[in-house]
Amino acid sequence: MIQRWRKRGKICTLRWFDVLTLTVILWGRSIIESTMVYLSYFGEVPVYEDSSASEAAVVTEEGEIVFSVASNYGALAMQVGLFLIAMLYLWLRRFDFRTWSVRLTWKSPIFAALIFLGGALLLDLYFMLTSPVAERLPFPGPIEGFFGNETVSKVIYGLFNGMYEELYFLGICLAVAPRHLKWALPFSLLVRVSFHTYQGSISALGIGLVFGSFMFLAYRYSKDKNLLPFFLAHSLGDIFGLGVLSYFWS
């Protein structure tokens, strides 16, 4: 079977079963765990048990999720393994990796900062509008930025996670024939929501639909379709939190 695949020419677009297979590889475990954690909020104490690490990530009384160093490195190791499996699948499928543009230019950091600020301000507005609803939900409200108690593990994990997520959403889900974007986009937004549900309904919808749509539109209308600024922008969101107004006033 591998020999037959390797004899075929390279492909630049993915089929529906490719996207589905890569979704299961990259996000299947996270979606299941996030859903289980979300359902547990309607039971007893909300604690996110990360089976890939020796310590748990705990939800504070302020609604902030605090991940341990072991959790960060455990999640990083798991994502690296899943990423390599996904790349092996694409290699066997003869996918042309040159379809993805990932280039470091002098514009990349500036564009990444602008994307981050745009997405952060958009989510600030979103959380302001939804705060009356969030107060009536069992758990939790918006997750605050954790710049004050940042650790090296969070930075390392955030840098890899930004690439891991946006390569899937912008590189894989959008690598379909143009006529299939009508289902690929909503599917990608649904996946983005599904593995963020452990943060609560409001946060999951904000990150998945609002931030996800913003990233799609920014990428769709970017001239060179360079993925690197989007990797960096997502990493900034992971490291500093998706919000900027809280740094200026409470």
Keywords:
250 residues; 3% strand; 60% helix; single chain; mainly alpha; 3-stranded antiparallel beta sheet; 8 helices
**Total beta strands:** 3
- Give helix and strand order, one letter per element, not per position: HHEEEHHHHHH
Supply Rg.
18 Å
Provide the β-strand percentage band. Answer: under 5%
**Largest β-sheet summary:** 3 strands, antiparallel
Question: How much helix is in the residues?
Answer: 55-70%
Strand order of the largest sheet: 1-2-3
Structural account:
The chain has 250 residues and is mainly α. The protein contains eight helices and three strands. It has a three-stranded antiparallel beta sheet, with no helix packed on it. β2 and β3 form a beta hairpin. The N and C termini lie far apart (59 Å). About 9% of the residues have low confidence.
Would you spell out the secondary-structure blueprint of this structure?
Layout: H1 2-7, H2 16-40, E1 47-48, E2 57-59, E3 65-66, H3 69-92, H4 107-134, H5 152-172, H6 181-194, H7 201-220, H8 228-240
Antiparallel strand pairs: 1-2, 2-3
